[in-house]
Amino acid sequence: MKRGLAFILAVFLLIGMLAGCSGEQKADAGKKTQDGKVVVDFWTFWGSETRRPIIEKIIEDYNNSQDKVFVKHTFLPWGDIWTKNLASVAAGNPADVIINDINTVSQRAENKQVEELSKYIDDSFKQQFYPHLWDTVEYEGKAYAVPFNTDTRLLFYNKKAFKEAGLDPEKPPATWAELEEYAKKLDVKNGKQYDRVGFYPLWGSVGASSWMTNADSGKGFIDNGELAINTPKKVEALEWILGWKERLGENTVQAFQAEFGSEQANPFIAEKVAMWVDVGTFYTQLRDYGQDLEFGVAPLPEYEEGAGNWAEGGGFVAEIPKGAKNPEEAMDFIKYLTGPEAQKYWAVKNYDNVANIEAAEATIEELKGPDKMVYEATVKNLEQTKMFPVPVEYPDYHSRINPQIDNALLGKTTPEKALEKAENDVEKMKKK
Known about the structure:
There is one protein chain. The protein is of the alpha+beta class. It folds into 2 domains: 32-151 and 314-386, CATH 3.40.190.10; 153-311 and 393-428, CATH 3.40.190.10. Helix content is 44%, strand content 15%. The strands form 6 sheets. The protein has a 6-stranded mixed beta sheet. The chain has a 3-stranded antiparallel beta sheet with strand order 12-7-13. It starts with a helix and ends with a helix. Residues 412-432 are annotated as: Disordered.
């Protein structure tokens, strides 16, 4: 017994000694490390086997680059991080830096949930980032976040299937009319069953709103403060989507969707769908699981020639929650996180579109072969990618629009009636 007790005491003593030797790792936000560094608590949802080592390497490099700040990484699951952020802001004990949604910065600024950053930045800092991304972080002329990453949508197409269908594999469809024409040629039927579907507009990382934006000259549902939901082009886009379902048949659409999965089970990789819309990072699945797939990438086809290859984009920002204890040190880390070196590392390792222009261009230069081809296409596509920040006058307006779009796609109402009701519902919710 005495020997056992002595062993337990020795273990506790050893643990205490180790804790004392790892003051930086155990440091809490709002305090300082044993060697006097200010601790900055950085919240992210990047906990996967792929992304966590990448962000922690960036943090480690920053910590080693200077002797005043120690960044502590706190991982919170996707479903929890923003709820806990709002709760911590309300309690007066938030993180110092958090990764947050790019299209809702104005909402948090208006609700005083995020620190204003203008005093830390100047025009030369802003010019590091794509202008359409920087626009999302400003509210009433002041910056409340810094863009971190973004995305865009491309048309991936199977070159082998193109050849089989008598199509030129170097000439993807340029317009909606060509997209329909190509899709019909790419369909492969066995009796009444489809072995391969040429294309379906709601498969992949794309929704009805993307096609409505594409048809309507890049206009979102709210354009320069004015509602643009029930427009002729958006009605036509919904009718166009319904036409695809009518041609293929509800059973075909449902049967194919029931088999969808990731990796080898992805229908484009499995060569069950010949054309597929997705974000640039979809390429990593093609690279890892579709080695024998000969494919090309192109912008989304235009509604008609000259209308523009408009795509929707999203992404994330780095921001300082309201009431953070160390805003100056937090901003120093944000500048590193969104600077060329860290952004290039994130882009190369994650194959992700970054917000820093210099980093994106440097990534293109470093990549080779198909890696370079797809990444360069995504960067070029940012020129015709629209961001749709949520206006403070219409918080959560999507919750009024999406159910009506679903009703139209389910055949419960006509596209025109659905969008008319959606626009009326959004108008009623306008925040005075």
